[in-house]
Records
---
Amino acid sequence: MHAPASRVTITTALRRVVVGYRVVGAMWLCLLGAVAVSQGASPAPVFVTMGLALGWTALTVTVARRPQVLRSWAFVAADLVVSAGTILVPSVGATSMTAFFGGYPFSTVALAAAVRGMSGALVSAAALATATVARIALQPGPPRPQEVVESVVFYVVGAAILAWANGVLVRNEEQRLAAEAALAEERTQRVRSQERAETAAHLHDSVLQTLALIQRRSGDPGEVNALARRQERELREWLAGPPTAGGAAADGLTDALAAVGEEVEARHRVTVDLVTVGEAPVDDDVAALVAATREAVTNAATHAGVGSVSVFAEATAGGIAVFVRDRGAGFDPGQVPADRRGISESIVGRMARHGGSARISAAPGMGTEVELLLPRPAPTVPSSGP
């Protein structure tokens, strides 16, 4: 799993931190070297050490953007040689205690921990601890076991802590990226599922309903041709752009519901009695509400066996409510086959996908009432400053 190219991964960030520490360590070494020369240290080994540290630091900065080079054991080994040199070179031929490498050698441990993990960090720590013990042995004077122990513990413990911390950060980053990828995949699947549901609902509302009408009116060729032409036109419009309720765009809820009523009256030869209170602009959610209303009215016109269907819509600040009623044959909602999507997808599912709800009240011989509710968030009023 790869992070996007625009994102800085934790491994890249760790490399940058280590390289930055290397630069600071080199400057630290040069400052201490200048102080050592001013206090009487031999200039030649000091300048050699400073040149070695500065040159290798410049090379490290140059190859920092090539992680495959930094990760190679060859580079880690060369890095160890340079850091060991900054520890040992000032002690060669010295007649007094000369140590000015500062924190530069530990940057090798940090780099090895970042690019090679625990194994690289411990190998580097062991090599630098050995170099430090050798430097102490080369210095004149009595043995200093305490300094030997301190140096070994410092490098080994520091390497273990750095490698462990780097491992924790990298594992956490990998887990986070995996979780983000899973979440993105889940969102993609959810969007695809919603798109499939919307497509199925639209096809049911338009194509399947028209085919059912054509089947019932097969004895009227003119009517069949008109239905087919209208459906072809609506399907082309839907494929060319976002679907709209009733096949045409509307400025407000009242116009959209009126268009639904006119279409159902023309197709099914029933009367749609529409009453609206209040107004609301037609956005995606309201368009879904209108489409669900269209399906409810179409179902009533098709199955109720009555000559009129009543539609009442009310838009308030808190939301929109639509009631579709008929006094026809009614039905038992529990007996609707699972493969019939007119109610489950085109009405209930569509409202749920847009944050609304649908309730069907029906019984055989008692008519049907469909209640559609679409909550609307209250408008936020910006607070005025004092």
Note: The CA atoms of residues 32 and 38 lie 10 Å apart.
---
Amino acid sequence: MKICIASEGRGGMDDAVSMQFGRCPVYTIVDIDGEIVGDVKVIENPGAGVASGAGVQAAQRVVSEGCEAVIAGSIGPNSYQVLSTAGVEVYTAPRISVREAVERLIKGELLRQSPGRVPGMGPAGGGG
């Protein structure tokens, strides 16, 4: 399973989970097989610096990477719509390390986001 984690800084397993999916600087992409963590790579977020539509651009990039799940602190309704339409599961996590978020996902300890729980962030909140 390929997982995308919104990351605060430069990405990687020791980085922190970003609270904003659409505006985070990078995504850490992690391949897991059962409980085994495989390849890890970092990709730039194309929506990080755009004036509007950040979440949609970010979600489209994640889908194009073949990710099956996303972990972020929060995600806006437009991002959620793109991801859910593509069959990508969305999970929320507090500000913890990417490594801990992956471990919690493997253990089934992260909350899966549903359509009724998606906050609207908009330009002021920048959640995308």
Note: Confidence is low (pLDDT under 50) at residues 121-128.
---
Amino acid sequence: FLVVPAWSAYFSGAFTRDYLVNPGHSISAILYAPIVETIIIFVPILEICRKLKASPTWVVLLFALFFEMLHTRSLYGHFVLYPTNVTLTVLYLSMRERSFWHAFLFTAVVHEFYNFFVSVANPLSYKSLIV
């Protein structure tokens, strides 16, 4: 889901119809993955850190690094995803001060919006653009 390299490769003519993104995968990435990731990754790790009273600064920096390493292998991807994951982690921790459900819902929904915009911006999502 790295938009800039995808558009760069598109304009260089690197893509054919064989490389199209399956729309079903985009729907899962938008609707289901953020909820599942929030449940199985954000909640357990960040709740343990909260119970241990770990420094929020270190929790944000290290958890964001861990979470983005699960998502990308490219060097460019690390630079793009790290700030996004810092934002999601800060959102979870700040909303957690209100309640668990605020933290869970806000994080999952913002993550869904992020995945939606990345999917829409990816040139591989559009058959008409690929020759």
Note: The chain has one domain: 3-17+27-129.
